[in-house]
Specification:
Elements: H1 3-17, H2 19-26, E1 30-35, E2 38-42, H3 46-64, E3 73-77, E4 84-86, H4 121-131, E5 141-144, H5 151-165, E6 171-175, H6 176-188, H7 192-200, E7 204-208, H8 217-232, E8 236-241, H9 253-259, E9 263-266, H10 272-289, H11 299-306, H12 311-328, H13 334-340, H14 342-347, H15 354-365, H16 369-373, H17 379-395, H18 400-406, H19 412-428, H20 430-444
Parallel strand pairs: 2-3, 5-8, 5-9, 6-7, 7-8
Antiparallel strand pairs: 1-2, 3-4
Helix pairs in contact: 1-2, 1-3, 4-5, 6-7, 10-11, 10-12, 15-17, 15-20, 17-19, 18-19, 19-20
Length: 445
């Protein structure tokens, strides 16, 4: 392999990891050498090298391997000859966690590093309950939510916790894609009995992204029988997907019914407080290892308000700031953060309009749109109007005067009073707090 072939491989890597991750982590890498199945890459800093190995080694190695000449080891560091990582082939990989060395789990995904908020507290509580290893009243536990809300984090946290509590328990964590791969492999090698024995002899089975098997009849058949065998033995099953069982098209009805027979928990989009909490937790963890790291006050609040698509995107943003700070060796200011994250901020710009906020608020309180712009002062109208103004200020970049004009020509002091009044009531009135949370969730979802 030469630097030219590495450049060719990078185009395939870009399509797999996405343009933002590619520009931040892969583009700065330089080819050093390829010897005896070990690829050596040079990175600007050891921090970047370590991050690449932790998050992208499998993607990189799959693109640089050639037929008959697999690359099984990646070395990436500031000198291109540090931080080795060994990549197991699918045949060698062992999702069953007998020892830490065999684990396919990410050590970052534990309960200690999971930030809990209103949008995920039910899922966290259920995952914690299962992770204690005792008997539970629900089986399976089904976690669902859109990408980047923490499903995989909770799944892996359960596996880690179970292993630490009872190291002798057979805990298997894998994706639905890996399940299918192993099943197809067993058919090809005519050893389906070994496959059945492997999966039906575990104490706990965790399958991530089960929507992947939808439409794959043979895999669904085997999954159904594996599921039944484990549940009938009283073994715990935990499943995740990007939507509820009933919403997964091309999934057999009998599987849908079985998945719904346990506890189904929805992870909702993270609210502002949870997003800020995640950022603060990540910064605190990073600062413990990098005491020279400094970030200007207000930067995290800015990111939490602007990036609401997913926790994963938010964490990617703060990791990019960590890399930037590691390179420039100075405090991260708001202006620098806006520059470094310009592409993410553009992609995350809210498309929400004040008209949409007014409409949703009217639907929630059973009012007419004309009530939002009227001068009526009865509490049944004024309070929802104040709520809509508060939401408009919180969820859009509009100024007080702009918001006032949309609400029938109200002046900016009226809007300011409304915003402060709702903030005050949220802290005092549980019903107002619940209304605000539900409306914000609907509008952000």
């Amino acid at each position: 392999m030469t630097s030219e072939t590495w450049d060719l491989a990078k185009s395939g890597i870009k399509s797999d990891v996405g343009i933002h991750n590619f520009q931040t982590w892969i583009e700065p890498l330089s080819f050093v050498t390829l010897e005896n199945g070990t690829l050596h890459l040079s990175s600007p800093t050891d921090f970047i090298g370590k991050w690449v190995i932790q998050n992208f080694q499998d993607v990189i190695l799959s693109h640089v391997s050639a037929p008959g000449a697999p690359v099984t080891r990646l070395v990436c560091g500031s000198k291109g000859m540090a931080r080795p990582a060994v990549r197991q082939t699918p045949d060698e990989a062992a999702p069953v966690l007998r020892t830490r060395q065999e684990s396919t789990l990410d050590r970052r995904f534990t309960f200690d590093s999971f930030v809990v908020g209103k949008s995920n507290e039910m899922a966290h509580a259920a995952a914690r309950r299962v992770a204690t290893g005792g008997s539970v009243s629900f089986n399976p536990l089904f976690l669902h939510g859109r990408v980047g809300l923490g499903k995989t984090h909770l799944m892996q946290a359960i596996a880690w916790e179970l292993q630490e509590r009872e190291p002798t328990r057979r805990v298997m964590y894998l994706s639905a894609e890996q399940f299918m791969y192993r099943f197809v492999q067993s058919l090809r090698e005519k050893n389906t009995m070994d496959f059945k024995h492997l999966f039906r002899s575990v104490d706990v089975l965790l399958v991530d992204d089960v929507q992947f098997i939808a439409g794959k009849e043979s895999t669904q058949e085997e999954f159904f029988h594996t599921f039944n065998a484990l549940v009938d033995q009283g073994k715990q099953v935990i499943i995740s997907a990007d939507r509820s069982p009933a919403e997964i098209s091309d999934l057999e009805e009998r599987i849908t019914t079985r998945l719904q027979s346990g506890l189904v928990v929805d992870l909702h989009p993270a609210d502002y407080e949870l997003r800020l909490g995640v950022l603060q937790h990540r910064v605190e963890s990073f600062a413990q290892k990098h005491p020279d790291f400094r970030i200007q006050e207000g930067v995290l609040e800015f990111l939490a308000s602007r990036i609401s698509t997913s926790i994963r995107v938010l964490e990617g943003a703060v990791m990019r700031l960590f890399a930037y700070a590691d390179l420039v060796k100075q405090e991260v200011t708001l202006e620098q953060a806006q520059d470094v994250l310009a592409d993410l901020l553009r992609a995350s710009e809210r498309k929400l309009t004040i008209d949409e906020i007014m409409k949703k608020t009217c639907e929630h309180y059973n009012l007419r749109m004309s009530d939002m712009t009227s001068g009526r002062r009865s509490r049944s109208v004024a309070r929802p109007r104040q709520m809509a103004m508060w939401l408009a200020k919180k969820l859009t970049p509009r100024s007080y005067p702009e918001i006032g004009r949309k609400f029938g020509g109200k002046d900016h002091t009226t809007v300011l009073y409304a915003v402060r009044k709702i903030e005050e009531l949220i802290a005092q009135d549980s019903q107002i707090a619940e209304d605000a949370m539900l409306l914000q969730r609907k509008l952000e979802g």
